[in-house]
Amino acid sequence: MTDKSSTGNPGDVNAEKAPAITRRDAIVAAGAALLATGVPLLGQTTVPPSPGIPPDPTKVQGRVPTDLGQRSSFEKPRRFVFRALPSGESGTPLQDLRGIVTPSDLHFERHHGGIPAIDPTNYTLLIHGMCERPLKFSLDDLKRFPSVSRIHFIECSGNGVGLGPRTDRKQTPQQTDGLLSTSEWTGVPLALLFKEVGISPDAKWFLAEGSDAARMTRSIPVEKAFDDAMIAYSQNGEAIRPEQGYPARLLLPGWEGNSNVKWIQRIEIGDAPWMTREETSKYTDPLANGTARQFSFVMDCKSLITFPAYPNFVSPGWWDVTGLAWSGRGKVARVEVSTDRGRSWEDAELQAPVLSKCTTRFRYLWKYAGGEAHLMSRATDETGYVQPTHAELVAARGPGTLYHHNDIRCWKVESDGHVFFDTEL
Amino acid sequence: MTDKSSTGNPGDVNAEKAPAITRRDAIVAAGAALLATGVPLLGQTTVPPSPGIPPDPTKVQGRVPTDLGQRSSFEKPRRFVFRALPSGESGTPLQDLRGIVTPSDLHFERHHGGIPAIDPTNYTLLIHGMCERPLKFSLDDLKRFPSVSRIHFIECSGNGVGLGPRTDRKQTPQQTDGLLSTSEWTGVPLALLFKEVGISPDAKWFLAEGSDAARMTRSIPVEKAFDDAMIAYSQNGEAIRPEQGYPARLLLPGWEGNSNVKWIQRIEIGDAPWMTREETSKYTDPLANGTARQFSFVMDCKSLITFPAYPNFVSPGWWDVTGLAWSGRGKVARVEVSTDRGRSWEDAELQAPVLSKCTTRFRYLWKYAGGEAHLMSRATDETGYVQPTHAELVAARGPGTLYHHNDIRCWKVESDGHVFFDTEL
User: Fold this and answer.
1) B216-265 tens-digit pLDDT
2) How far is B367 from chain A, CA to nearest CA, in Å?
3) Is A25 domain-assigned?
4) What is the CATH number of the domain that holds B334?
5) Which of these, A355, A299, A307, A306, lies nearest to A329 by C-alpha position?
6) Measuring CA to CA, which of A49, A114, A290, B98 is 20 to 30 A from A384?
7) Range of the domain at A401
8) Predicted complex ipTM
9) Domain containing residue B210: CATH number
10) A313-368 pLDDT, tens per residue?
11) What is the pTM (predicted TM-score) of this model?
């Protein structure tokens, strides 16, 4: 801030009451106060103005309203593109986000045949199979039904570092677990559509088919439709984004991302699973005894510290450790934080609202004394399920599992204050 | 959807179970079923493919992941620019949005000197006046404090049609009440900063000053700082947008938008209000007796039906009437809907989560019998305050008030099913 008198401000008629303080006074005073609380005064050096930025914005008329907003040119949040292929993926910059909502253009992507281009006026959803009257719904038809809006996370079941050696310590939260995002979803309850077609009382499963080039296809138990499944057409208020299934997708709150079939074009009702490629050769969890978990839909309770993390640096003092916790089984009941690699744990604070099958922001005020530290978080959901350690997960499932890595992560603070992903956990 | 066999789908191994249905079968069946529920089958005519859109997206490899998402080219939600001037405004397309969250690039704008361009590395917030140690905080300093995230609405106190004749019946919800948006805000509680500077026990008011060309300046009671005020630097997860105060703004949950000073650069602590232009010549409510309400900060309980509204058309049958309700005093406790211009009322359903000082989505399933109808909504908050009628508002405040128009709105359905803003209410 440049120094200025307050005479230019028509509202500031009582400005003479303000004690005359100089910039230097403020900095010295700040130093004294912050010493007491452990918060160092950062960024107080004078920075030259950026090109195109007025040194004093109060002296320059600003930009006029526009029909669509833009980010500040100083802010460039970006997804991390793991693979720029039709069967590709990009991750949400978890370390850059606050709260729980993910801006729609930063929602993670995962698709097996690329993002299809779909004209919504040509879009239809066919529901057929074990029902009285097969129906084809246009997008307008779907929007005509009573709708429901809910804030839920979606997480790719492959999210998270592998269970093998974790050799790269230079990984950000976006790189380790960025296939996780949270949106307010709006759509028609699938139960309403199933009633509309007169679903058979003998129906037990349905097949959901996408209209992408992979024609993503998954078998889903009918119970989920009568619980909380919806055909969603809206994300954070507006139309679903192309990467998230425009113009409509299946939403199965709390279930692995892959089963939330995007660009959904067909639902077939039956009495047994279809045994598609995506539930036989993929999206199963091999177990130590040679068998495999199949239809492991629910995303187990998990948490992740998003700050501090690689590549942050911490100096001795107080730090607001924060992160996200979530469970596909319901609400997060508790998050504990350890700073000594799991030897001792303390409760973190949960930020309201704590919603079912939704990310919950947690915070823990940590006094870093310097030296080496290991930061871990452990979440418990309302069913009592506790996020496991890496060793517990391997013991339960064996070493070959590619999915559902909800084990505890660890950030190692080196003795010089630099933070890395702990590859030794 | 084009007809296709399911042989191309590697997962669809049980496709032979599907009854062979033709497109015609589906339409005929659909017609029969929808007659029973009152939902007509819309949009089932064949539409020619759009340029660049494949007739069958399953046959074409889709787009690969990118670091930033884009809307579908078929979706163009836009703010409505009421005035493209530095003292201008643009409104949120309420009729196009579902749920409660407003995408950040559609958040309404209101500023008196345009949107300033600010380099965040040069940004500072000075807090001085009646305190032990005046301090200047950089953006990094602010982010170092423990933060809080909450979902709140912001509404311009001038939102809503004037109290005079409402001559234009061709107004959308965006045009009548679009200066209302809801975001998840993150920032540092102002109480923490006031403790940091050692606020005087005799302090009663503080002055908040923006760094825009209008140098927006408002006096705020200190109680609000120790209640729920924050210096917000994040909106829907990411950095606050320039139009909403980048890099930091005052957030006073539930209070009139103007007092939530954007681009905040200075807070002066005192023991009396400063009587700035924005709280004397503006943002006061003249009363019938010649006096005026001053410092009328709280946004009273209000609601608005966003569908159906102008320019919608409804045919006889069931419709999902929906809208938003909100109160600056706390949670919305009840929303009633009238379809007969207020003669009778029925409870609408409130969509969870119902959060304090936040918009709440409501829904009411309405069987439109045809003919003329008048749709109104009436909200009650948890304090028992009931949204007033236009007549009640005028009786309480007289005809001259420019702000705080929370009176009940009405959408008139003409006998031909076309919906207009009711100018006669």
Assistant:
1) 999 999 999 999 999 999 999 999 999 999 999 999 999 999 999 999 99
2) 12
3) no
4) 2.60.40.650
5) A299
6) A290
7) 302-421
8) 0.89
9) 3.90.420.10
10) 999 999 999 999 999 999 999 999 999 999 999 999 999 999 999 999 999 999 99
11) 0.90
pLDDT at A35 over 80: no
pLDDT 10s digits, B49-61: 688 899 999 999 9
Does B213 share its domain with B122? Answer: yes
Domain count for chain B: 2
Same domain, A281 and A313: no
Q: Concatenated DSSP letters for A251-307?
A: E-TTB-GGGS-SSEEEEEEESS----HHHHTSS-EE-TTS-EE----BPPPEEEEEE
Cβ distance of B53 and A122 shorter than 8 Å:
yes
Interface with chain B: mutation pick from A21, A24, A58, highest number of B CBs within 10 Å:
A58
Please indicate, yes or no, whether residues B99 and B198 belong to a single structural domain of this protein: yes
How many Å apart are CA A413 and CA A309, to the nearest integer?
9
Q: Domain for residue B37, yes or no?
A: no
Q: Which of B226, B261, B293 is the last residue of a domain?
A: B293
Q: In angstroms, rounded to a whole number, what is the distance separating the alpha carbons of residues B379 and B406? A: 10
Instruction: Spell out which residues of chain A touch residue B140, defining contact as CB-CB under 8 Å.
Output: 42-43
Neighbours of B410 (CB within 10 A): 22
Domain membership of residue A83 (yes or no) is no
Domain end, chosen from A259, A293, A327, is at: A293
Q: In angstroms, rounded to a whole number, what is the distance separating the alpha carbons of residues A127 and B295?
A: 57
Span A118-171, pLDDT tens digits: 999 999 999 999 999 999 999 999 999 999 999 999 999 999 865 444 678 999
Residues B109 and B205 in one domain: yes
Which residues of chain B does A96 touch, with a Cβ-Cβ cutoff of 8 Å?
238
